Prior knowledge:
Chain A is of the alpha+beta class. Chain A has 15 helices and 21 strands. In chain A, helix 1 crosses helix 4 (76-93) and helix 12 packs antiparallel against helix 13.
Amino acid sequence: MSAPIARSMVLWVPDWPIVASTRVSPLQTGLPLALIDKGQVFACSASARAEGVKRGLRVREAQARCPGLIVRAYEQQLDQRTFETVVTEVEELMPGVQLLRPGICAIRSRGPARYYAGEKPAGLALVTLLDQLGVPGSRVGIADGPFTAEQAARTATHVRRVRVVPEGNAAEFLRDLPVSLIDDPPLIVLLRRLGIMTLGDFAALPADDVAGRFGEGGARLHALSGGLDSRPIVPRIPPEELDVQVAFEPALDRVDQVTFGVRTVADDFVQGLVGQRLVCTALRVEIETELGDYSERSWLHPRSFTAADVVDRVRWQLQGSAEVDSGLRSGVTRVRIVPESVDAIAHHEVGLFGAGPDERIHHGLSRVQSMLGHEGVVTAMVSGGRTLADRQATIPWGDRPLTPRNPVEPWPGQLPKPFPSTVFPTPHPVHVFGPGGVSVTVSDRGMLSAPPARFSPAASGRDAREVMAWAGPWPVAERWWDAAAAHTAHRFQVVDDRGIAWLLVLVGDEWSAEARYD
Amino acid sequence: MQETKLDTRLLPTHPAIASLLPGGGLKQGAMYSLEQSATLLMALIAGPSRAGSWCGVVGVPEFGVEAAASFGVDLERLVLVPNPGDQWLAVTAAIADVMPVVVARPPQRASDGNLARLAARLRQRGSTLIVLGAWPQSEAMLSLSDSQWGGIGRGHGHLTARQATVTVSTRLGRPRSARLWLPDPELQFTPMSSQAPVPVPVPVPVRVPAEYLRAV
């Protein structure tokens, strides 16, 4: 029934979340640090633990125990991502690594043991590598099966960092360890109530009875606690490198030269993806320059990137703003293209009769974008807000639509319908005169100084027209609590003698036209 | 008189305006010019847009998006090129290749040769071009006059509806005009019945905010 038990080597980095967090944003060594997940301490550094902080405490309580505690949010992705680099390095030294959890990985020890002439030297080689990578305090356990090896690693001390449990001694090694090490909290509670406190006690129960009482899962944990961990180590397959980069020596300082240099790697990039039966729907372009500038931007594609599209995105990023043919601030030394999201190519296959009109439209608009720049072609959305400029949002063609404000919310103080058909991108100054030819103002109490009688749509005050009808002032006081963002204005609707209605805004005593109903 | 061109297909046009246009609607592959009225422009493109056509608007940075949406233009199928600069002709031609309705405002005059090429392209693709401003080869010219706003008085009410005369003039024949609600109080474009009295601005009772509106 049981497969042969493989000799396993488990590498364990204590407090990996803490190590990962300090690798990304360095911290002076020795300062107490805690990572918080859902309001509770998820992991803490050794110095914090010495002050009494432990996993599962509430943030308030942890801070009470250790007033100098530095608190950061726990990010699972960060753990995974940083451990990935460690695993890659370990794979360089010893192939066939299985990632168990961030901070723990398992290797079959047979190969390394033969190469390094012994299991202990192999473990020491691993520990030395980790020290070179700047990951201190790693431990290695070598035993029969990954479970026993993990426990061996956890019982290794910081003086003797490699612990080897000889072949066949797994059950003896596990005998005195507490039963709480098995990964099944309800079962642990039950076993304790039955008076079973150590793994040895659990392993001593008859296997058939355990299987009958606790089922398949219980039987497996029973085998683990007896040192009979028959799980094989499944080495991970290192992911394919899909990103491409090109270095320029000497640095190139013209957009067209860089674009030309990127053309071949763009082809390689798309070909590499096609080889994996993938297409790219979002990519990141990273550009480094001679002066050490670094620009990075994600680009989305409504369908999937072709080589020409990739080249276009690099060019748009270099051009930055909408200017065309501008020189660069400093020479470009390196361009890297990283796929951010990929999809199976089968989902993007062109249909037998073409993919309909939308593809044609996308091609046409992409052509216009390559003439005018990425921001040159936009789609529009209705957004939330009180001023007309706030209420419309434009999104460059191909980007993900994001509205900063929700248009469905009530927005008290917005204009009544109908909406003006012409909204000036920047309001232009106008003049409004009362009956005597003096400029109309609004007092602090919201009272008009005089009814509007004449109105001039020009900044110079010429071309004055008679005001046929008007309404206002409609005061708007937005964000009065925030001095930087506060906006106070009075709005008016004015109809001139040509039958054109205007939306005028009075800020202080400056009149401007925000929109026209024409 | 016999037509000099073959039969052309019509875009779905708003019925109130379609009856004024030569041929009974916006023709595919034709060019129209429009005197400065954005509401009339939206009335023209709302019909095709509602019927599923894509619309491109070139060189109109002040296009009122919210008004367009409320008048029935589908924003999902609306593309704006606010500032084409000197390349407006190339951009208009590129957009006309893929979209059945294109609106453009030429910032300067183009040469006759380029205009003829653009016209040929529009005919070939069956795209309709609406030009804001005068345009030499236009099928018809639309203009708006005698606009009267309702719902607003001297210091009270607010704009609710507008009546205006839309005039369509062609190179041949008499100009045709009609009095329309642009828009009516329900934000629709409807023809006015001939017996309707001459509109007077009637104040609609609305609550004018007396005190400051405080955003919270």
